[in-house]
Design a protein that fits this description.
six-stranded antiparallel β-sheet
């Protein structure tokens, strides 16, 4: 992990899906989801510039991440340490792909809420999209329960990169 936080997941770039079982041709839905997420994030660029003063210059490749049952999670971290004058990650997007995920399965995304001085939770349920300021939002992934679905917890992640206007 670039942040130094402990992480217990495995990741693959969607463009490298040929490394997955069955090869790239077996994963058309994954490629379609990646394209849809990219298009949705592109649609946010005007809002980010007008409301937050963020100029988006690029998008990362999509990454498919998996935490298996019993995984210990991912320690508290930022997705980017912003360096003025350099383009860096400014928005993190996580699209969850987990049908039938229950709270007792664990794996919640915890986000630090400065205004209330507490952690807020987002559960990794299918079709949930979480957007975070990469350079300012401290977050972590909680451990996955031993009885979680055998496929584990999946998220499709993409980053918008840019700088302040």
């Amino acid at each position: 992990s670039p942040s130094g936080a402990h992480r217990d997941d495995t990741c693959v770039l969607v463009r490298d899906a040929s490394r997955l079982a069955g090869g790239a041709s077996s994963w058309p839905a994954l490629h379609a989801l990646s394209q849809s997420l990219s298009e949705a994030l592109h649609g946010l660029c005007g809002f980010l510039a007008a409301e937050l003063g963020l100029v988006v210059t690029s998008r990362s490749d999509a990454v498919l991440g998996r935490f298996g049952p019993g995984a210990c999670g991912y320690g508290a971290h930022l997705d980017s340490c912003y360096d003025r004058g350099a383009d860096s990650r400014v928005v993190s997007a996580l699209l969850y792909l987990n049908e039938g995920w229950r709270d007792e399965d664990g794996g919640a995304l915890r986000v630090w809420d400065d205004s209330h001085a507490c952690w807020q939770e987002a559960w990794p349920r299918a079709d949930e999209l979480v957007l975070l300021r990469s350079d300012r939002t401290l977050h972590k992934v909680m451990p996955i329960g031993e009885c979680a679905p055998s496929m584990g917890r999946f998220a499709l992640t993409m980053f918008l990169c840019g700088r302040y206007a």
